[in-house]
Amino acid sequence: MNPLHKQTLKSLLWTVAYTILLLSTITTFLPITICLLMIPVMALAVLETPLRFILFVLPAFIIAYLLAGSLSPVVLILGLFFLPAGIVMGSLHKKRKSARTVITAGTVALLFEMLICLVIATLSGYKVIGGFREMSKTYLDTIQPLLQGVMSGDAEKAFIDTMIEMIPTLLIMMSIFWAFVTHGLGRVFLSMSGTEVSRLRPLREWMLPRSFVWIYLLVLLFNMFVSTEGKSVLGAMVTNLYPLLLFAFAIQAVSFFFFLTHTTNKGKALPVLSIIALIFLPPAVFVYSFIGLFDVTFGLRDRFRKNK
């Protein structure tokens, strides 16, 4: 087959996949669809020129919009929201940038779009914080029978207030997750079709900068000994930085477990079990974060290499 025809066929398949994903945004598959929506965009941005990219993406929007009926605005809004970040990631992959650069750029693009959406919503008269508070209260009221009176009225209010303060953390975590999924699955699918893009370094080689240790310790001290209640800027910064750093060092610990298994060639189940524990046992994140902290601070990997 002619190379141009082969590439066109690939792009057509991505267009079909994108159309299906856009239509699935109005179904119960929405939580899954949101995680996958940027993948066809990124792939088409890698495969095609800007003009041909438009020619493949536009029909997907038109078909999905027409078939969605009264829910077509939902399709349009979600599709347009994830479009720029997908283009950014695809364009950088096309320029052979590193996977780390691509994921960082995708994360920043998503955060910027979220910020714009919040500004537009606020200027339109929608009370974002009030809406989030009401949504959280409705959710807690729904699961109240499961809590069996564990959470009182004051505790419920404090929990909701904390969640509101942590909105920046939630937005950052969502953006990082979406960018990682888009890069990871997109790279696999592109590779299967014969198109190679940059990949992340193996998890066992991941290492946080030493500067993160000092930031983590400062935030930890503030979190332990300084009251972060109220509406102070410092309190908001600590409230949001602490869980982010906690998670970052927990991932560092998982990376260390992978390194340990690779270096010693023993305990091959350890990395997998560590990930399972991190997902299903949330308190494990505190233990993991200290392991990750020791790994970065004291160079545990260098010690294992020397011993070996």
Automatic annotation (TrEMBL):
The chain crosses the membrane at residues 12-39, 104-126, 166-190, 211-228, 240-260, 272-294. It holds the Pfam family DUF2232. Keywords: Membrane, Transmembrane, Transmembrane helix. The keyword Cell membrane does not apply. This is DUF2232 domain-containing protein. The keyword Ribonucleoprotein does not apply. PANTHER family: DUF2232 DOMAIN-CONTAINING PROTEIN, MEMBRANE PROTEIN-RELATED.
